[in-house]
Amino acid sequence: MNIGVFVCHCGSNIAGTVDTEKVAEAARSFPDVAFATDTMYACSEPGQAGIIDAIKDYGLDGIVVASCTPRMHEATFRKTLERAGLNKYLFEMANIREHVSWIGKDKELNTNKAAELVQMAVAKLRNNTELHAGEFEINKRVMVIGGGVAGIQAALDCADGGLQVILVERESTIGGKMAKLDKTFPTVDCSSCILGPRMVDVAQHPNITLYAMSEVESVNGFVGNFDVSIRKKATYVDWEACTGCGQCMEKCPSKKAEDRFNEGVGTTTAINIPFPQAIPKKAVINANACIMLSKGKCGACAKLCPTQAIRFEQQDEIVQEQVGAIIAATGYDLFDHTLYGEYGGGRYPDVITSIQYERLLSASGPTGGHIKRPSDGREPKNIVFIQCVGSRDPSVNRPYCSGFCCMYTAKQAILTKDHIPDSQSHVFYMDIRSPGKLYDEFTRRAMEEYGARYIRGRVSTIQPRDGYYVVKGADTIMGSQVEVKADLVVLAVGAEASKGAGALAEKLRISYDGYGFFMEGHPKLKPVETNTAGVYLAGSCQGPKDIPASVAQGSAAASKVQALFSKDKLASDPQVSSVAIQRCVGCAKCESTCPFGAIEMTEFRGMPKASVVETVCQGCGVCAVTCPQGAIQLQHFTDNQILAEVNALCPY
Amino acid sequence: MTRQYAYYPGCSAMGSSIEYDISTRALCKSLGVELVDIPDWNCCGSTPAHASDHLLSASLVARNLAIAESMDVEGIITPCPSCLKNLKTTSLRMQRKGFHEKVEHIVERPVRADLPIRSVLQTVIEHCSPEAIAEHVSKPLKGLKVVPYYGCIMNRPPDVMTFDDPENPTSLDRLMQALGAEVLPFPHKVDCCGASLGLVRRELVTRLSGRILDTAASLGADAIVTACPMCQMNLDLRQNQINRANGTQHRMPIFYYTQLAGLALGQHESCLRMDKLCVSPARALQQVGAPAQEEPAR
Amino acid sequence: MPTPSATHRFDEDFLKEVQQGSEQNLTRCYQCGNCTAGCPLSFAYDIPVNRLMRLLQAGEKHAVLSSKAIWLCASCETCTTRCPNEIDVARIMDVLRHMARREGLVAEPPVRHMWDAFLSSVEKYGRVFEAGMMANFVRRTGRFWTDADLAPVAIGKGKLGLRPHAIKHPDEVQRIFARFRDQR
């Protein structure tokens, strides 16, 4: 071979602790190396041009770049080779940045190690072969999991772009958390007024199939060819027949069912439609609260439903959908404030969460938009808002900032003044985070125009006294303890990962962090992709964010899907396992150890032989290790290639 | 089933909280918790020691640990939260080798610091659940409204004291309910009474303890029940000082939980020593049909 | 207080000594004020506890050690229990008391005298002889009216013994004190 070696300075990142010129010089002595040089930034345009020129000038047929991690630039340099007319698998990288210059300061030791890594790379490259990608079909349908504002945006963008969309939503209605809000900051727009039309668009769009009250059961397949099982949970109502008239709700005698939509403020009927603008506007029966389903009596709704839509015998149903891409937009949940024993641990009825307060503020909420104390129904005059409940708090394992609570608290303080003009709001804060457009001006309005008193300090405890509450906080700027009398206390609870996020991530085979938020492909440059091909992210499932950011990510994910589907076929990765039939003895050990089910047993001239399903193979190499004959080899990581590296490093 | 524990009474047991010691011993005996006094135990140093030097504090504690370790016991138990905190904190700090050596050098004894250390309350509740105790109640405290006052350090900090919830403990609540009393929800369960500062700055205690009395009275409590000698002293012995300072007229009896437990279990007055309480418990005891005690003129 | 200087008057050794003695990392404190908010004695402090932590972070040794606040702390552990950054504030307050003593900066002498009277009783008898401790305290402070109104009640109830009872081996406790002083 005529191998070219390029040792990158990476500015001073590598050259600071590695003598790159010496490494290049050492490389010239390795077998089959026809050309070696050091270069300032191999990945830059001139750097890549230098590689292409050298290939042409010296007739090189294989390239080693000693630079950063392959995760950074393997793809970059492979494209460089292709532009020069070489097969991109005749390329190896030696990581002399993360594995050398970034972990040690001794220049001599580093230079030696770098030279050895280059030697290993050259040895492997000498054993590489050309590999050619196959092609496979893409199913140009997309599944969006989660019908909150991010999922709705993603679904509409894909559908408007001509794609078939399957939208799967866990609750009986789409809309997510945004549908529960009364108004939105900083414009104080009515939330359902701006979201409602979008929800209706979803319902009416010819390209969108909506599965509400459904969850993803399992995901099989791979990018372009996902096979998803969806569990349609029993609603005990035939949604084809149900018109959403609501008569069943009026007559249902079981009135103490958990009201999930209203966050537990008050109760609701066992059969219910969550809110007037619900999409789909269909009734659902809560089996635990339903007298017929739990005790076998009643059935009032069945008797009076004008379209006889009640189906007590309904069961969950599993349906299959095939799609080419999946967008996860599963949103967030709110921190459980009962963990703060000093705030009552959930025992004080007038200490509520921000989302419960939204429902009180909302005209379509359980109190018709009249702010009432849950304990006695009286209108509060002194309302205290406490920020950072379950955010920026390492002691409850929530060290992060949730990003939107300062804003929604200011909004709630403003709305409180509108609702109750003679009220006085106090807000206890540590910092005000208001980075968006018109955000800081909005928080200042709450203080300057709406009379909200902001006190910089945390609250240590809330104690009930004579029918009201004493909130004991601090004003750190004044340097003093502060006591505020409150009729109602609203806790600005922080965001956490949606319940069940981890389990869904595992079904999708994507990563998630310690808090359950899904991992993006790169924290800066790939916010809506994952490391799993074909699966994208949008909205708060990736990390807490406000509505504009969620909508932006919804559109971004949609554009990623559009890009994926812009080709008719996708290239398959040739770095998969391959069976040498003459060596295979048909023992089938590889078939049973493959974690992905990518190996099938077939017949060849009457003898059992293993065969790899290339599109399913993930290139993990477990089969290659298992095979007693060495018959199955992972392409680009064959036994000979790896042993060549070992032998280069350990010549004795 | 009898369990044997090394008992660390604490200095106040000899004097200002003598009724706590007597009723604790009586309660433990009736529940099968066998107490063996740590022979020749010395003062743990309480706040003055740990506020002066941690090594001195640990050394005073360690002498007791060493003696207890030579006894055949399940662990060390004490009725006083301050002693408990010192015993536990020292035991934890001595897990550090350097500190361990320093302490042993001063105490001139080997100290393993590995015995479990618990409050009497925890031991009683774990040994014999409130429900089980309820079965032995012969004189239910029906009609008695109490507020349970745990005090600030019995359950805090939670990673040292490792017993009940640090914000809303319920062990005393459950025990009192099992004895038949009505337990009122009390927002000041773990608020500080002022501790020993009353000696040097009386107004601090009259303010903090005064608030506890005020809230208990406004809730309609007949009595406050405590498990800490310091709290009991501040609320009981100093109640007149509090009344004078705040212009109130409280006559709120401050029981030790062991006294009420003994009462409900039908123990004799010699085990309860209600006569030692400064504020007369007569009216409260009449609520439960218990005979009023002879009261010396105040 | 003179203008703090982030460079000139910043006593880094002081900060290190406090962090080492208390095994707490003060950079974790983001000055939320939770400690002050819950401190039952804050109303009596000259410097609220969160401000003491800030002064500590700023290396202001004299301001911290000469405060009265550290002596009026009841060691109730509220601050430690509720700190969101899990800083053991109560332990830091203990360490500040230790250091203030060593530097001779005790801003509330009666508190220190009370503790010293207590400890001297422990040293002598092995346990606290309450009446003796009171007498010692009065002698040190001259406050002979202290709790005079409680004495008759306490004596009447048999709660204030007037004769000391030493443990069998008070000498062992005396040796503890002596060996402690020697190693200092």
TrEMBL record, chain B:
A Pfam family assignment: CCG
> Which ranges carry the Cysteine-rich domain?
5-88, 149-236
Q: Which GO terms describe its molecular function?
A: oxidoreductase activity
Decide whether keyword Oxidoreductase is in the record.
Answer: yes
Q: Which UniProt keywords apply?
A: Oxidoreductase
Keyword Acyltransferase belongs to the record: no
Signal peptide residue numbers: none
- Gene3D superfamilies, alphabetically? 1.20.1050.140, 3.40.50.11810
What is the protein name given in its UniProt record? Heterodisulfide reductase subunit B
UniProtKB/TrEMBL annotation, chain C:
GO terms under cellular component: plasma membrane
Which superkingdom, per the lineage? Bacteria
Q: Which UniProt keywords apply?
A: 4Fe-4S, Iron, Iron-sulfur, Metal-binding, Oxidoreductase
Q: Which residues form the 4Fe-4S ferredoxin-type domain?
A: 20-50
The keyword Iron-sulfur belongs to this UniProt entry's keyword annotation? yes
Q: Which GO terms describe its molecular function?
A: 4 iron, 4 sulfur cluster binding; metal ion binding; oxidoreductase activity
InterPro entries on file: 4Fe4S_Fe-S-bd, 4Fe4S_Fe_S_CS, HdrC_iron-sulfur_subunit, Helical_ferredxn
Q: What is this protein called?
A: Heterodisulfide reductase subunit C
- Species source reads Desulfovibrio subterraneus
**Top-level taxonomy:** Bacteria, Pseudomonadati, Thermodesulfobacteriota, Desulfovibrionia, Desulfovibrionales
Record gene name: hdrC_2
